[in-house]
Amino acid sequence: NVAVFVAFGDAFRVGTEETFDFSNVVHVGNGKNATVPFGYQTHATVIVGSVWGDDESKLLKIQVQNPSLVSIPDGKVGTMIGAESPFYAWWNLGQIKEVYFEASDALPVRNFKKGICALFQYQLLDGTYSEVDPSGECETKYISHSSTRYHKSKGNCHYDAKRMQRSEYGLRSNLKTSRSTDFTVSTDGALQKIKSQDYVKYLLNAQDRFGPYYESIMQMNVQGSTQKTSTQEGSDIDGIVKKLSLEKETLLTEEYKSSCKDNNCDNIISVFKQLKHSLTNDNVGKEASATAMVDMVRAARKATKEDLVRIIKAKSSNDMKGQIVDILGAAQTMASHQAAKSELLSSSDDENMFLAERYLQALAIGTRPKKEIVADLLEMALKEHMNVKFYDSLIQCLAAVTRRYAQLEGNSYETEVVKKVVNFLEEKIDECSREDCKLKFIRGLQNLKCPRTADRLIKLAQESTKAVSVAAMKALRSFSVYLWNDEFRAKFEDIFFQVSKRYDSSARTLALDILLDLKPDQDELSHLVQFLKSKDKAYELKQYLLQKLRMAAAQCSEFGAMLKNIIEKDGLLNNYNILAPKGLSTALSRKFSTAPSFNASLTSLQEMSGGVLKRGIVDLTLDVSDEKMSLFTLGLYAGGMSSFVSSNDEEQITDNNEEEDTTAGMELSVQGVVMRPLEFFNGKGELMGHVWSGTASEPTPAYQAITLLQDNEERFASHNGVTLALSSTGAISIDLNGQVTMSLWGRNAHSKVEQNTGISMTSRLSFDTSFASVDVRFSSVQAPQLHLSSALDFSGDPALCMQLVQPKSTLKHRFVGTIDLIGTKHQASRKTTKTFKLNGLTHSLNRKNNDMCNLISKS
Prior knowledge:
Among the domains are: 16-249, Lipovitellin-phosvitin complex, beta-sheet shell regions (Roll); 269-368, no CATH class; 595-646 and 658-693, Outer Surface Protein A, domain 2 (Single Sheet). Strands 1, 2, 3, 4, 5, 6, 7, 8, 9, 10, 11, 12 and 13 form a 13-stranded antiparallel sheet that branches. Helix 19 (539-555) crosses helix 20. 44% of the residues are buried. Strand 14 (586-593) and strand 15 (600-609) form a beta hairpin. The chain is built from 23 helices and 29 strands. The longest helix has 20 residues, at 388-407. It is an alpha+beta fold. 31% of the residues lie in helices and 36% in strands. The model is unreliable at 653-657 and 686-695 (pLDDT under 50).
């Protein structure tokens, strides 16, 4: 302490005052292109007098004089009201312990004054200190460059960040910050000049060239020489503060939000009136509805139940009821849940049930789960609903919302309400006697992804009927690969190689997927590849393995080199007979989009059986760094269809001589949440009805919804007393439709699936002070489409031609920055728009597919 005391010497000698020239320049703009300055500058004279104290503690009287404000770059003049009243600070050996204000000082004025006051907090001995200032409680490191020049850096600052982030890395936002100060003191240790800088960038992980930045530079330089000033009489600081009727605070600031004009700020009714034309059914699958979703959800989270009910009931809402339901599910407040329950879950007519199911699907994908909603869904699930489809969706919603709740900070799968849901689903599976009942709750476990249910699922996969076994394997495939130890690996190998018994080919392909996800070493990969030489008659499975190996080799050069080495060392393996098995199964991955858009890829896996599709998926994934996140998965399944195709394949001998039902349908997964399957038909009679009537040959909507992508927000406490509100919100609007035509005379079939997508991503930085309101918004919108068509000719040897087409589209980046100078009618604004034209393309699948397409086109 003696060393500290000596270092400060004559700093703030009682009975003297000094004058400083103060300025704060604030710039905001594009985080990746900060060439044009845009912001404001405040300027003032600051007089600091030491009015009471001893060698260690001083009471400083600080007064701001002649404050001014101008916008940058247009130089418009604003007003700063309330800043000139004096305030006081308790300075103790370089630290500001407390700050004292007049009762009339409003919150934003106090924040501004704290920013100035914090500049007088400094140390003269190198080292790391703990300090409190407007940035929060920070670790500060001081390094001296000479006896009078110092550098101070701040890190690990704790403040109320109010951070909310998606759990998926690809949909998070990245806050990059830098806080530093350089200052000069006199030989006596008195402050001469100081420059403090905060720099913030807020970028989307999915598009790291996209987002705002903020820079604040505060400077203060001493003016003239030290002057005398009057002092305060008193035995301690508390007595003086009481005598002056001041209010005590620390340097920590509190967020200030300006009041809404006409009290109509973000009111859900007014926002809905502005945006309802973008939410009509015709706009689903387009950018307009995705952009409207972003603004509507923001307003819906502040809305009352009564206002939300009013919107649902409005006559003008009839053409957009489904989209309003999507908004309620995404908002995930108790008000939105109660509004949905009272209006949608109160009656069981067909339209209400459709909308109620859509609400549950939206809620399942939502990102801000509440304990009360989890408990309410569980209570609803305990009473089995008469409507089978609704009850299935309720189970999937309950499981998905519970998983997200378990992933929240401070929660786990051991949290009480989560354990209740896990127990409920497990008990229900045990109670089920029918297969369809088991399948429903297995899907629930797939959405829940609780590690402790993995043992139950592997038991179901190994010991149950074909359908249950495949469903259990699908669930296990969706779990984190880090769960699988050697014991699980052995069980997956048992299923793939059929060591203990025969398994359905779909269960085997799923086991293979997991074994490859485990990143096999040379020995493990060699063991897998030996299957190609085996006498197993499942040639489609061999083709699927070969396709997966080629896909993995194309994605990872190390894997490719290891695979090549294994094949070249084995003469029996390295020949055409083994490496070109017959079969139509395919596995491939292609780029869907790259910069300037987000990085995404398409994975297509098609498992064939007897010339027809048995299980197929097209998965659109968001790729960020080494992380992949499924945005949308379209799955098709069929069984018992090979009797319509001429085939004498030995592979068609069904396992255990089970008669396979004729069935087909679609399985959708949105952002990793599995929906209940959409069944096209079940039974040959129903299939023939579709064939004769042609009901399957018209484009039929399979899925329409708008869901959130990014849903992040946080606060940043800046050194100048400002609190930045940072948010990134994205939405995806999907319209999926399909059609199938089949000719038994021509012995051919055609199918087409169209996915129309509107994507909108926004990133926002805003803050309010007593003299200016700043708002910076970035938006990126596009409408990519994907068309998947297939032609099957089964007049002779089955031939399948698939085409994957992406039509051309456009991408628009927009920046809008506004600064309102309070007390004036002036608003500075900057807007830029950049449009990118993205070419269309037809994806090259593989040579075999090209040959098949040529064959079919000639026939």
